[in-house]
Amino acid sequence: MASTQQLSAQVIGRVGALAVALGIGVAIAQHPGVAVADDTAAASTSASNSRTADRDAGPQSRPKRHQARTQSDRADVPLRPRARLTRTSADDAPSRPATPDASPAVWALAGAARRELGIDAADSASPLGTEQQLEAEQVAAETVQTLPVKVMKRVLRKAWLRTAEQEYDGGVDAENLARLDKAVDEYAMGAAFQQQLLDPMRPTVVAQVAPPHTWYGNEVPGSRILYDNPDTIYRFTAVNKTSTYVLTGRFTGDMPADTTFSVLTGLSGTTAAVLSARDLQIDDQGRFTITLSGDPAAPGGGNHLQLTADSTLIAVRNTLSDWNSQPPMELSVERVSGPRDSLFAQLGGFAIPVIGPAVSSSRLLTALVSVIPPMKNPPRFLRGTLTAVVMALGLSREATYIKVATTDPQTGERVAPNVLRDPSRNAEFLATQLQSAGYFDISDDEALVVTVDPGNAGYFTVPVTDLWTITGDYRNEQTSLNNAQARPNADGTYTLVISPTDPGVENWVSTGGLNRGTLSLRFQDLDPASPNSPTVRAVLVPLEKLPDVLPAGTPAFTAAERAAQLARRQTGYDVRFAPFPQ
Questions:
Q1: What are the boundaries of the region Disordered (predicted)?
Q2: In b/e form, how buried is each residue of 316-344, taking b as 16+ CB within 10 angstroms?
């Protein structure tokens, strides 16, 4: 095995050669006699070796759990035994249901409710559990233990605390201060996933923005950031204009409430284009393919997304309103043509502002950077350094997203807590949805009563997040409700009660024990033909006055009914990480 000094010398030598190649290329990039950058041999090899095992599966067959890796994947990160991932105390979300304050009789009733509803422990393998996913989780967990990441976590912690003290009325309370380290840890884990998505010549589909979970013998830390939605499965794959890709997927149960494929640009992740399920061509077996390239869509050519010079990622969102009947879809990616993999691509060169788009737009520069091959085994310290660079974006991003909840977008003035505005579009979120954001300050004996008119939205959700804009243990606590999970009023509106204490009504959104936190209501699957926009109103009341503001005839909700409601929620959640428990 090469020594650390030898690996460092290899890195320095390749980076130096890369710099020389770029310097020469920039000097002559405008020369008219430019060779084509596509390397047919490399492209065909990548295409033939990266097809997933279930690509040609029959209509009734289930996908194999592990997808085949590309040749370049094997060169970069050798397969290893799936060692148990070490979690820190910050990642201590329970892997088993927490036992609420209920009698054995109540839980017996909950068990009976499970059987009555036909709810069994999830036993069929989740399509999220691919070999690529499991290895990405292991690499990410190793990366966050490196020195550069640990240093950047300390920087982020100080910056986030300073921002929160400035932005929230009353600053940060003890409950949220105790959750700060966990929030920073999850942001670091997310960045460690993003670092693995920097190379568009080795595309893989990676799920992230996920809670801590245990599967296949591994305890995986969470990677939630920036108002994550408990209903949404987030997956990403790297892309670049110089290559052509094919996304292949299949819906295996009821259709999700919303599914989108977004083209993101640069390091900031600005949305450039979106393909939604409304426009997706799907066959009668639930299968679909999407091509991605720098070419525009051909008339009648099927599902296609055009990539631009600054395209870096495809963000795929499956929003599941019914967790029990809407499983995550199967999804794989294949690069079918493009230049050779390179050190430039491996180090995230195509994502660097100005430089990346310049190389993507120049066949000569693309050819020059492709001359220098990638490292077979990047040093862990290098992965950590790249992850720390990605984390540095959190210095400004967290402040931006906190202000979404605390600042009026029209006036720039601070808004009071417990106020929710009517939904509107926000550049920081999914381009095809509406949001209503705010922050709450609720005593144990109070409740924030939220009334939602969904209007032309086929889906909406009310999730609770902490002051650091991430969710809590939404498997074992009902800290979110969407319109498929909640009971509507007679007029089609919904009344939800947000409170730390169970108010004894069906549409309770628990704060997870928090008295202070943030809210980001989402509205998706918007009908463009309908003029009826969603509306939201909120009022803070003492719990003893709650019956005065609830719709007439709102029934009481018993402990047994709550236990059954939670049991159904837990079983639906387990589908994501099935087979469960492991």
A1: 40-104
A2: bbbbbbbbbebbbbbbbbbbbbbbbbbbb
Q: Which two tokens stand for residue 267?
A: 């390091």
**Chain centre distance of CA 228:** 7
Give the chain's domains with CATH numbers: 127-225+377-391 (no CATH), 231-338 (2.60.120.600), 411-551 (2.60.120.1600)
Q: pLDDT for 156-176, tens place per residue?
A: 999 999 999 999 988 999 999
Reading the block at residue 292, the tokens are 């991605």
Structure tokens at 43: 């492209």
Q: Is 157 exposed, middle or buried (0-12, 13-18, 19+ CB in 10 A)?
A: middle
Separation of alpha carbons 394 and 149, rounded Å: 13
Nearest 10 degrees: Cα torsion 146, 147, 153, 158: 170
The C-alpha atoms of residue 376 and residue 199 are separated, in whole angstroms, by 13
Contacts of 563 (CB under 8 A, 6+ apart): 100, 102, 106, 107, 109, 110, 113
pLDDT tens profile 205-214: 999 999 999 9
Residues in contact with 391: Cβ distance below 8 Å, sequence separation at least 6, in sequence order: 149, 152, 153, 156, 187, 188, 191
Q: Which residue has the tokens 């509803």?
A: 117
How far is it, in rounded angstroms, from Cα 165 to Cα 417? 15
Our CA angle for 339, 344, 345, nearest 5°, is 60
> What's the CA gap between 186 and 225, in Å, rounded?
7
Q: Is the peptide bond before 581 cis (omega within 30 degrees of 0)?
A: yes
Q: What's the pLDDT band for 39 if we cut at 50, 70, 90?
A: very low
Cα of 182 vs its chain's centroid, Å: 17
The full DSSP string for 183-208 is HHHHHHHHHHHHHHT--TTS---EEE
- Is residue 375 classed as helix, strand or coil in its secondary structure? coil
Closest CA to 180 of 169, 194, 164: 164
Closest among 352, 345, 359 to 266, alpha carbons compared? 352
- Which one, of 158, 156, 162, 151, lies nearest residue 184 by Cα? 156
